[in-house]
Write a structure and sequence with these properties.
Blueprint: E1 7-8, H1 12-22, H2 27-43, H3 53-79, E2 89-93, H4 99-106, E3 112-116, H5 120-132, E4 140-143, H6 151-155, E5 160-164, E6 182-187, H7 191-205, E7 210-213, H8 222-225, E8 234-238, H9 242-248, E9 257-266, E10 277-287, E11 290-296, E12 302-307, E13 321-323, E14 329-331, E15 334-336, E16 342-344
Parallel strand pairs: 1-8, 2-3, 2-5, 3-4, 5-6, 12-15
Antiparallel strand pairs: 6-9, 7-9, 8-9, 10-11, 10-13, 11-12, 13-16, 14-15
Bound molecules: S-adenosylmethionine (SAM).
S-adenosylmethionine binds next to helix 3 and helix 4.
Length: 345
């Protein structure tokens, strides 16, 4: 089977700038700071790395590149419907060193931007990197307190509000968020974080939002309705630069693939009816005589399936959208493919 996954990598300008930070430490020493920060993230929700030079460099050279690639994939997914073209302004809560800001700018999305970040040191890093990357940005503001953005601002200008790996550092989702026109969450792919996003989705549908991605429908999330343990998350394939691999060689984990969960909510309804479109939300699973792959297109827990004797040689990338033939055969929770189907990866 020919496997054709999109491979995500860092833009050269960003990689070169982050490499300068990486060179402040020997790869082995930096890997120890990365392990320390990783343990902190796993055990204490609220710690921020910005006051300690070693932990700050660990964030800039490890966590920033990985979050950049995750948010790049999410931008690609939501741009399948051109959802970002109409955005007029941008609000990010917990913006850290500007990971997503750089992502938007390097993708030529230049919004008037407002950043809410509790750490002054993180804001200083953001401003320094913005200068070092020589990116010309629309006017930006930064606020250090965790006060809510003014609702009259966030309601107008088709604003996008982003939480990227920050919701898990807040105690709960602030109530003002429902004033936003568009909300994007990018969060860890853990069972807890991902199921929390599915619950937020169900709750926000009742407040007049539409779930535009990864969901292709507005029905209750099947991960919650039909399972106590399943969770919706995505995976991408990545190739990191040589300087990153030098650090990674001292770590117990290798990042050939990255996982994440995401949710894009909007008060603007979906442009197209997606009756025969499904999102691929699982990896392929080989079973006796057939392969199955989890998809989502409504409130049922369903799988695409193909039997090996039919000699279907298609590889379907996780996270992509697939066009289902109208006459696809339904066998219990399986939609049985008889020939290759169209994918929008
Ligand atoms: C894991 S970092 C993510 C940073 C950035 N979004 C990224 O993807 O790289 C979470 C950030 O949220 C910030 N933060 C935590 N609690 C906050 C709050 N109540 N208000 C604003 N920022 C907060 C932290 O200082 C930290 O920079």
């Amino acid at each position: 089977m020919m496997v054709k996954n999109k491979i995500y990598s860092l833009p050269k300008v960003l990689s070169d700038n982050l490499e300068v930070h990486a060179k402040k430490f020997k790869p082995k020493a930096l890997s120890q700071y990365i392990m320390r920060l990783s343990n902190i993230y796993q055990n204490e929700k609220k710690h921020t790395p910005w006051e300690d030079e070693g932990l700050k460099t660990a964030y800039l050279t490890y966590f920033l590149p990985l979050n950049y690639l995750r948010s790049q994939a999410v931008i690609d997914r939501i741009q399948k419907n051109n959802s970002l073209n109409a955005i007029g302004s941008f609000y990010e809560i917990g913006s850290g060193p500007g990971t997503s800001h750089f992502n938007f700018l390097l993708n030529n999305f230049n919004f008037e931007s407002h950043f809410y970040e509790i750490s002054k040191n993180a804001i200083a890093c953001h401003k320094e990197l913005l200068g070092a990357l020589s990116l010309s940005s629309m006017p930006c503001t930064w606020e250090t307190h965790s006060n809510r953005p003014e609702s009259h601002l966030i309601e107008k200008n088709n604003a996008l509000t982003l939480f990227c790996y920050s919701l898990n550092e807040l105690n709960s989702l602030p109530a003002w968020v429902s004033n936003a026109h568009n909300i994007l969450f990018i969060e860890p792919s853990t069972q807890v974080s991902s199921r929390e996003l599915s619950l937020i989705r169900n709750q926000y549908l009742k407040l007049g939002f539409y779930a535009l991605a990864p969901c292709t429908h507005q029905k209750p999330c099947p991960m919650i309705t039909h399972s106590k343990k399943d969770w919706c998350h995505d995976r991408i394939h990545v190739k990191l630069p040589a300087w990153f691999e030098d650090i990674e060689n001292h770590l117990p984990i290798k990042n050939n693939t990255l996982t994440f969960s995401y949710l894009f909510l909007s008060k603007t309804p979906p442009k197209a009816k997606l009756d025969h479109v499904a999102r691929v939300i699982g990896d392929t699973q080989k079973q006796k005589g057939k392969t199955i792959q989890m998809i989502c297109r409504g409130d049922k827990r369903e799988f695409l399936s193909w039997v090996h004797k039919d000699k279907i040689n298609q590889y379907i990338e996780r996270g992509s959208l697939v066009q289902l033939p109208e006459d696809i055969e339904l066998k219990s929770s399986e939609l049985r493919m008889k020939k290759d189907i169209k994918c929008f990866s």
